[in-house]
Amino acid sequence: MKNKTLVLLLFILLKFILQYIAINPAYELHRDEFLHLDLGNHIAWGYISVPPITGWLSYLIIALGKTVFWVKFFPALFGALTVWVVWKITETLGGNLFALSLSALCVILSVLLRINTLYQPNSLEFLLWTTMFFTIIRFIQSQENKWLWYTGIAFAFGFLNKYNISFLVLGLFPAMLLTQQRKLFANKQFYFVLAVTLILIAPNLWWQYQNDFPVIWHLNTLSKTQLVNVNRMDFLIDQLLFFSGAHLVLIAGFVSFFRYDPFKKFRILLWTFIFVILSYFYLKAKSYYAIGLYPTFIAFGAVYLEKILDKGRKRYLRPVLLLIPIIVIIPIFSIFLPVLSPQKIVENQEKFRFLGLLKWEDGKEHALPQDFADMQGWNELGALVDKAFENVSDKSTTLIHCDGYGMAGAINFYANQTYTEALTLDADYINWYPLDQMIIENVILVQGPWDDDPERKREAPLFDSISLIGEVENEYARDKGTRVYLLKGAKKDINALLKEEIDNKKFPKKN
Q1: For burial by CB atoms within 10 Å, which of 7, 179, 239, 445 has the most?
Q2: Are strands 423-424 and 442-447 parallel, antiparallel or unpaired?
Q3: Which residue ranges make up each domain of the chain?
Q4: Most confident region among 76-80, 427-431, 478-482 by mean pLDDT
Q5: How many CB atoms lie within 10 A of CB 88?
């Protein structure tokens, strides 16, 4: 086995180990992970929340046993593959073992450590961004049309995973016009690639059309509820934090397009970076949307630094450059990752507050970072639903109706009951109510802490009895105070009432 291959395998092993030790056992799955997992029970060409690939992956995870190990395996795998693609980029740019090792370390010891702990589309997204950059680099080097086809395929999978990759293409086209790569517009193969790429994503586009383009509704909701709290300066500051151990390497990468002749032909990538960042900045996008841009430029910087050190006979500086990402990650490892227990975080809040990590999407500061609080209290909620089912004789006529998608997904994952699927009028769950398959006689009602009717006056006329089973008491949970009620003996047609409520909801509905 070649030395390079052995080193690469060691880095990939390191990546997997870090991903599995980066989460304190005190944390449960994240609220978004529950939703993504439940998509696997409803395979389709699209969903309200995400394109179809997440559902396909979730189907596989469910088939493998739906354990925490497999939930965490796939984001770790995509993170490891991102390291491998960056390694290949570095190699194809002429990098040797030092540049390869430097680029791998800078990618592993970065924000991707956090991204790759969560089962969300982002891990695969950033892998596919990096893959697209790699195929573009290989096309520029070889002028072989097969790399155009690989680029189109990478984009198609990226689009079917998360629409955010469209911004990469939107940045790429004006970048082509500003560089010598504008000659690509005269290449007939380029248009064949565009046509086939469109065919590959067409089933999802057709699904969007059939369902009244839920992606537009989803973007409008994000704009009103989350992006409205995004500060443009925070967006720029966060860009500096994502790869904080790679600042020197990234600067070298950007400089290399002007100072290192072999890299000047790749300036299209630099212009693409600029256009994408400007687009996100103008639209007040979430800062993490841009993470997929950076791994490729780390590869350029690592190779350029290697050439500089070799030319200046300063190889003794190599260990220093390799140590920088390690030294930088050590003090922040336990801050950006859920390594510390909630109690320890509360004891050390100033560090988190200084870095702005306690500020949630609501614009306010809280005890834990929002993502960490989203990983608390779910197992407790599942136990409450199990307790409610103990008081139900006819479980086949009992519906679990929740206030939000996190609650529904968590119950489906943590509750021991297997009688029915927890549902909500939130996100994709609104399309999954089995109103034609069951007659609802009882309801296990799960209401968030924001609910203004703790005595259930709204539901009292509809059922023979209503009892409070309990509430989530975990003080660190984002949804602390969530209550579970058991509503027994329907006195009215609950199916019809729910159908009317679904029809009145401003969600896209399945035709």
Answers
A1: 445
A2: unpaired
A3: 78-332, 343-373, 378-504
A4: 76-80
A5: 18
Please report which confidence band the pLDDT of residue 226 belongs to, taking 50, 70 and 90 as the band edges. low
Tokens of 14: 């390191």
Give the angle 431-432-438 at the CA atoms, nearest 5°: 130
- Residue 456 makes CB contacts below 8 A (sequence gap 6+) with 445, 466, 485, 487
Residue in the block written with tokens 């890299």 = 263
Residue by residue, what is the 3-state secondary structure of 252-297? Answer: HHHHHHHHCHHHHHHHHHHHHHHHHHHHHHHHCCCHHHHHHHHHHH
- Residues whose CB falls within 8 Å of the CB of residue 434, separated by 6 or more in sequence, listed in order: 420, 421
Sheet holding 442-447, edge to edge: 423-424, 398-402, 442-447, 483-490, 463-471
Q: What is the sign of the dihedral through the CA atoms of 137, 287, 377 and 465?
A: negative
* Phi, psi at 465, each rounded to 5°: -145, 150
Residue 19 to residue 115: CA distance in whole angstroms: 10
Q: What is the DSSP string of 72-129?
A: HHHHHHHHHHHHHHHHHHHHHTT--HHHHHHHHHHHHSSTHHHHTTS-STHHHHHHHH
C-beta of residue 230 within 8 angstroms of C-beta of residue 286: yes
Q: For 471-488, what is each residue's pLDDT tens digit?
A: 999 999 999 999 999 999
State how far the Cα of 77 lies from the Cα of 19, in Å rounded to an integer: 10
pLDDT on residue 1:
61
Distance CA 479, CA 470 (A): 14
| Of 158, 249, 237, nearest in space to 204 by CA | 158
Backbone φ and ψ of 125, nearest 5°? -60, -50
Instruction: Find, among 182, 158, 172, the residue nearest to 50 by Cα.
Output: 158
Burial class (CB within 10 angstroms; exposed 0-12, middle 13-18, buried 19+) of 496: exposed
| DSSP H or E run through 509 | none
Strands 442-447 and 398-402: parallel
Size of the chain in residues = 511
CA distances from 51 to 158, 204, 407 (A): 10, 7, 22
The 3-state DSSP class for residue 473 equals coil
Summarize pLDDT for 46-56 with one digit per residue, the tens.
998 899 999 99
Work out whether the CA dihedral 403, 407, 408, 409 comes out positive or negative: positive
